[in-house]
Design a protein that fits this description.
Radius of gyration: 22 Å
Distance between the termini: 34 Å
Strand content: 15-25%
Helix content: 25-40%
Number of helices: 19
Strand order of the largest sheet: 9-10-8-7-6-5-4-3-11
Length: 454
């Protein structure tokens, strides 16, 4: 997501008024922020914060549980789900994703309880995608069928590597054989709806060993693969090891070659790339993640979860970026006291919303089509914003970017260079869309604003 410095101020435009500032158009907020096309549905992300151990590379919001508090966590997840859905006033939930942490540590009854709460407050069809991240340990595998009965219909398995030595050095608590067994069992239960996560750019890894490992995985996996480059994060054990020269990471040229080889190998095995890191065959894309990339609303539930939605339930007309309290114990207390653990909420300006739509949409191989962009920017289309730019024209001439009657997207070669292309596009967007201040509310301020819906 785009990192920005948010201004703690608000400029409100009167309904029906457009302002012209130096040739730029600042649009009536009501034209884009609360459009029924954008607010009638949302996906739900549920964060289970607990892990049995911390991997050496991980800086996610996760905690080692001091005691079993599954019952309390279940009740609080249900209550916050209820609060957020009532606040958003969505009539339909398009998908639910249980992430973490290690959500396969949650009891299946917890999953069932949260899904029951969702179904009580919004339409959740039997065909809606419900994904659970699974750590491929014997316990994770043993619970797959129970999760299926609880309402899960898609599994995302954190394989990460098929090299036992690498798994051990990364702090993973499973073996390659356990990962393969978990994939087999998940495919038996959910054929065509099993994804595997695999990581490249690991210490001592070469392009050749990576291609061999990926080919081995593709012989047994289902119809969806997510590739992630291992990145160094400050504060992690791996970061310290690299700083102390105990561990050496592949250089940038090697990891770029690994990515190129992976795309080629996956294509040879019938996988279509539909996003920078995601590949599918037989139309098995992740519908939940597609919602993120298309700029659709999503509701975050659980410690540290993020959300993007318009709070229609309290009269809101502008999409907000919301972050829930990180620490599970503090989050539990807040949910028990006021029905939610929202720590921070920021009203997104039109520019900030478009920045997110652009940054996420350009990750997809299909990019952003004109009709979709018009939902968020009815006054200025893709061609008006990006067509006149000399920098964009250079990208078009170099065949890294495509702007045509379909919309705006990266070429096959350009997608691998998205990190260098995106800043150019964001700069052009900022030149054309006049920024409007936003409002950031602290936890204390918003306590007065949000109350538990009755």
């Amino acid at each position: 997501m785009i990192k920005r410095t948010f201004v703690a101020a608000s400029r409100v435009l009167s309904p029906g008024v457009r302002r012209y500032c130096g040739g730029e158009v600042t649009e009536d907020v009501s034209e884009w922020a609360a459009s029924p096309h954008l607010t009638k549905q949302a996906s739900v992300y549920v964060h289970w914060p607990y892990c049995l151990r911390r991997c050496s590379y991980c800086n996610f919001n996760k905690y080692i549980p001091k005691e079993n508090n599954d019952h309390i966590m279940t009740k609080c997840l249900q209550r916050e789900t209820e609060t957020m859905l009532q606040l958003s006033q969505v009539s339909r939930v398009s998908s639910v994703f249980f992430g973490g942490g290690t959500p396969s540590l949650a009891h299946p009854s917890t999953i069932a309880a949260v899904l029951e709460t969702v179904s009580k407050l919004a339409s959740l069809s039997d065909e809606a995608e419900v994904t659970l991240e699974v750590n491929p340990t014997p316990m994770g595998m043993s619970r797959l069928e129970d999760y299926l009965h609880a309402g899960v219909n898609r599994f995302s398995i954190g394989v990460q590597s098929l090299q036992d030595e690498d798994l051990k050095s990364l702090g993973r608590d499973h073996s390659s054989s356990q990962a393969l067994q978990t994939i087999e069992e998940a495919r038996r239960l959910c054929p065509g709806r099993v994804s595997v996560d695999v990581m490249f750019g690991r210490p001592k890894q070469t392009a050749g060993s990576w291609v061999h490992e990926l080919s081995e995985l593709l012989r047994v996996c289902d119809d969806h693969v997510s590739l992630y480059q291992l990145t160094l994060e400050r504060g992690t054990q791996l970061f310290k090891q690299v700083q102390c020269k105990q561990v050496t990471m592949p250089d940038e040229e090697v990891t770029a070659e690994m990515y190129r080889c992976a795309r080629k190998t996956l294509h040879q095995h019938g996988f279509m790339q539909y996003e920078v890191s995601n590949f599918a065959r037989h139309n098995s894309m992740s519908h939940h993640n597609l919602g993120y990339w298309k700029g659709e609303q999503y509701i975050g539930v659980g410690p540290g979860a993020h959300g993007r939605f318009v709070p229609l339930g309290e009269g809101g007309v502008v999409r907000e970026a919301r972050t829930q309290t990180l620490e599970p114990d503090v989050w539990i207390r807040e949910v028990q006291q006021r029905g939610h653990g929202t720590r921070r909420r920021i009203q997104l300006s039109h520019l900030e919303l478009l920045e997110e739509v652009l940054a996420m949409g350009m990750r997809m191989t299909k990019g952003i089509n004109h009709e979709h962009w018009d939902l968020f920017s009815p006054q200025l289309g893709l061609c008006e914003i990006f067509g006149p730019s000399m920098d964009v024209k250079e990208l078009l001439q170099n065949k890294q970017l495509i702007l045509d009657d379909r919309g705006l997207r990266c070429s096959w070669t350009g997608l691998a260079l998205l990190d260098s292309i995106l800043p150019i596009l964001l700069l052009e967007l900022e030149r054309n869309i006049s920024p409007v201040g936003n409002l950031s509310l602290s936890a204390d301020e918003q306590t007065k604003k949000i109350s538990q819906p009755r």
